[in-house]
Structures are given as C-alpha cells and as structure tokens.
Design a protein that fits this description.
Layout lengths: L29 H5 L3 E3 L9 E2 L2 H13 L1 E10 L9 E9 L2 E5 L8 H6 L4 E4 L2 H10 L6 E4 H8 L6 H9 L1 E3 L15 H12 L1 H15 L2 H13 L22 H21 L3 H4 L2 H10 L4 H5 L10 H16 L21 H4 L1 H21 L3 H4 L2 H9 L7 H10 L4 H17 L2
Parallel strand pairs: 1-8, 2-5, 3-6, 6-7
Antiparallel strand pairs: 3-4, 4-5
Helix pairs in contact: 5-8, 6-8, 10-12, 10-14, 16-18, 16-20, 19-20
Amino acid sequence: MTDAHDTAADSPLRTTGGAPPDDGGTGGTSASRAAEPVPLLEPREGIPPVIADADGLAAVVAAFAAGTGPVAVDAERASGYRYGQSAYLVQLRREGAGSALIDPVACPDLSALGEAIADAEWVLHAATQDLPCLREIGMVPGRIFDTELAGRLAGFPRVGLGAMVESVLGYVLEKGHSAVDWSTRPLPEPWLRYAALDVELLVDLRDALEKELERQGKLEWALQEFDAIASAPPPAPRKDPWRRTSGMHKVRRRRQLAVVRELWEARDRIARRRDVSPGKVLGDAAIVEAALALPANVHALTALSGFGNRMGRRQLEQWQAAVDRARALPESALPLPGQAVAGPPPPRAWADKDPAAAARLSAARAAVSARAEELRMPQENLIAPDTVRRVCWTPPGTVDAASVGDALAAHGARPWQVEQVTPLLVAALAAGS
C-alpha cells in the first residue's frame, strides 16, 4: 500500500510540478508548464468500499486513529436536490490508513471518528462549505488547513480543487460529478471514484502550498485564517430569509412583500416535509411573479409564469391560499420594505449622508486595493470590505495606529490583517477628515 507521503519513486506526484514562481503565483514552474498534466483516473488502492454499518465504521475509526499526519477530509452534499445542506458522503484519507468513504445516512453519528482524529490537522478545500454539514454528524476539527484559502493567499488565479491540483501537482482531476444528486442510493461507481480522488492528493497539495506560503512570508497569515475558521461559532439563523428570494428588487409594495413571505414560507414547509430542494417545489421567479400580480383567484394564478398546466389543482390552491393570506393581512401586519441593517448605510448613499465619510471610504478602498495587488491576493482576503466600511463610517475618536488597530480587531480582523491594513486606514481616515 502506498499513500500521499511515499517516496518520489513510488508516489504518483510529478516531480516537475511545483509552487508558483516568484511573480506571485500565476502558474506552475517553467518545468511544470512545459509538461502535460497527467489525468488521475484511479485511486492508488482502488475505490474503497462505502462504509454503511457500525462494524465498518469501527474499523475506519481504528485505522484513522492509528494513522499519522494530516487527514484529508471532504463531504458531498445534494444541493439542488434535497432540503438543507446535509452530507451524503464523507471522504477521508490519512497516511497509514488509506482512503475511506462513509455513508452518513446509514452512519449518522460520526462523532467517534471525529474524536479519533481530533488532534490531527484536517485538510479541506473550501472548508467553510463543508464544516457545517460535518458538524451535523459530529465531526468538529480542532485545526484545519484550507487549500482553497491557501491558494488565494498565495496568489493563484484559479483556486478550485481541480485547478490547484493541476497547477501545483500536475494532475488532472475528473470533475464531471460535482453537481450530481449525492443522495442517490446506491451511489454509482464512477461517482465513488470521483469522490475518492477528491482526497487522493489533498495532503500533497497542502504540503506544496505550505512551502509556497512560507516562501512568500505568508504562512503565519494563513495559519491565523485557518484558526479563525476552525474556532468560528456556527452562524446564527438568518433573519427574514424570504427576503433573499431571487428577483426581490422588483417587489416594492408592502402587500407584494407579504405575498413573497407567505409563498416562501409555504414552499419551505413543503420542501422540508418532502426533503427536496425548495426550488424544485416552486421557483423564485414564480414567487415574484405572483407577488407582482396579486392574483385574485386560482384562474388568475394559473395564467402566471411558473403556475402553468403542469401544476395540479391542489398545488395551485395551496399557492393561492398563501396569496390570499397575504391579501387579507391588515396594513399593520405587512412587512416593511428593506431590512433593518446594523452598521453603516449602503456606500452609494454616503455622499449625501456624510460626504466626509464617503471621502474616507474612497481613500481607504484605493489604499487597500493597491496593497492587495502588491501582496497578490484578493482584496477581501486582505480585509473584509464590511470592516473597512464600518471603520470609515464610524472612525475612532483618535486616529492613530493603536485606536485604528483596536477598531479593526473589534470587527474580527486577524493580527496579520491589523498589521497590514492599519497604516492604510490611518492615512485614509486622516486624509478624509
């Protein structure tokens, strides 16, 4: 059995591959650019069996507890097919343990596995996407390494897993099954092969990116970012989630807003009960169409786009009932337009509300943009745009490095961000005052 940390002679990794060049990470080395990427078609030890019972899970727990080094972790969801964002397959790989595929529907409690690898570093790609569904099944990391975020900080122009594996390691991952319905049972073999390959080289990618971040002097920055992700509490439920219906900008009257709310909530109840994606129950465009038209009866509703002949009478009646509930509400119960926003107003309104704040924001944005370009990373990774807006809208009473640094930290900026951004904002706040 070989795995991710075998010698170069036995490893499938290309020795010609490598980290980005000194120009800040816009591709592989000249040697890797000259060589053709190699398709990665099969996991090293073949496709592992899907673990779907207690005995199989116990064996995986023991194997991964005995393994060494970081643990590659990935999860597949059924977005667009099922209600919510639950995991329908969990993939792992660790030196000494090989790869494992686990069915979290059959094994819904993976807390024993999470505890077995709790002391290890978990390597994920786009960790914030997978951590919520992993937490649901009892897997909570203490330390992580996010290869997507590492790629952003290192200046790679494309940070999808396939693009990163190709540019750094010289291998091509087949990505044709990324949007399939992972709640399907049994899972087809090609899907399982794809899933196993997603963790096949993840630790190797991590090791290469760590070296590149260290070369650029950004490794400590990345570690602070990873710690922030791992220690972040679960997000609070979103207030008035119906306001995020696509096309809401067309809905302006309070009665119409009430129709969106009633239809959205009715759709959500049905989708939850049927365990299907809300969009498969009723599209956002149909909800907005009904809100704008305010149909008086089922006949009028049927004439609207999204409520045509394919919809049964009973379905039409339930949607019309939601519209009728909104039509019957007293004025005092209608939702208000817009949403109460904590913090500063939208930047487009600053010039009228507070010209000095608008000037501060303009100067700060320009400075942050220039610094991000120097560091070859996206501006939003250098500092969250919302943090810049808040500090510019309500600057500290005394504009100096200590007070501005404290303000940035209070809004969640990490120490490396405070160090990089504080001088920029001190100058911008002083120029705009």
